[in-house]
Automatic annotation (TrEMBL):
InterPro entries named in the record: HD, HDZip_class_I_plant, Homeobox_CS, Homeodomain-like_sf, HTH_motif, Leu_zip_homeo
GO molecular function, one term: identical protein binding
Name of this protein: Homeobox-leucine zipper protein
DNA-binding annotation, residue ranges on this chain: 63-122
Amino acid sequence: MMESGRLFFDPSACHGKLLFLGSGDGVYRGARPMIGMEETSKRRPFFSSAEDLYDEEYYDEQLPEKKRRLTPDQVHLLEKSFEEENKLEPERKTQLAKKLGLQPRQVAVWFQNRRARWKTKQLERDYDLLKSSYDSLASNHDSVVKENEKLKSEVASLTEKLQAKQVVTEQTPGQRADPLPVEIINVSPLQHRVKAEDRLSTGSGGSEVEDEDGPQLVDSGDSYFPSDEYPGCVGPVDGVQSEEDDGSDDGRSYFSDVFAVTGQQQQQQQQHEEALDWWVWPN
DNA sequence: TTGTGTTTTATTGCCTCC
DNA sequence: GGAGGCAATAAAACACAA
């Protein structure tokens, strides 16, 4: 029994184009064997037993150039080896080839194709992770928009009440009757709430909020979203910083400090990072 | 049985690294 | 320049529905 060719064909004979029918244009068209369709009746089933594979008689009837699948045992060993290290050093290639009764070239090709399959799967996994991450962010965004709408309507309602109250005080002698400043109508809902509360609680009439463009809420020591009133809001507002203020720009989401990350999200993040670690194969 | 889709084995050409 | 890796691709082998 031949050492290297006992299981399958002799791949060394397959590397050239001599065994293949030419396509006529000199261009290689793939591993077309020199056998006719009548050979199909001699096809070996995919899951042949090891005994069959060592049966010389079985292969004597086969033309050597026929493409064959590896046995489950061979694939198992190759998979184990791939798990240990997905790249193949020359020495390991030779050892594996001897062990499996294959040509080193076949082992190398198997690893090459296996890496390609792994990469495809990895891309699918990465896509799924990114998609779930996006879905989660989109969901958060929706809830923020709804909360914003709710706050806006609350501000409008409070403004109406405030104006009504001022009308009453105007008609009452001895009371201040300052007209509502125009700016209070135009500021963002959050700032609006701050200004209104400043006026109502301290009576100072002043406000430290000057910039209407950004969410620059000055630290007053209090949360503008009392947890009992706004259970959906996590953490004090003074934790919100503008991007300019934030010296700890580590590339993470701006919202990560505002919205608590769920356990699931943390797990997904960790999985993704592990996946990316895997992605960079060691050399 | 047959047509069709998927998986596996293998080749080719290009690129990078030493 | 040779060795090895990867992407693209071909074709055999296989699975499966009609």
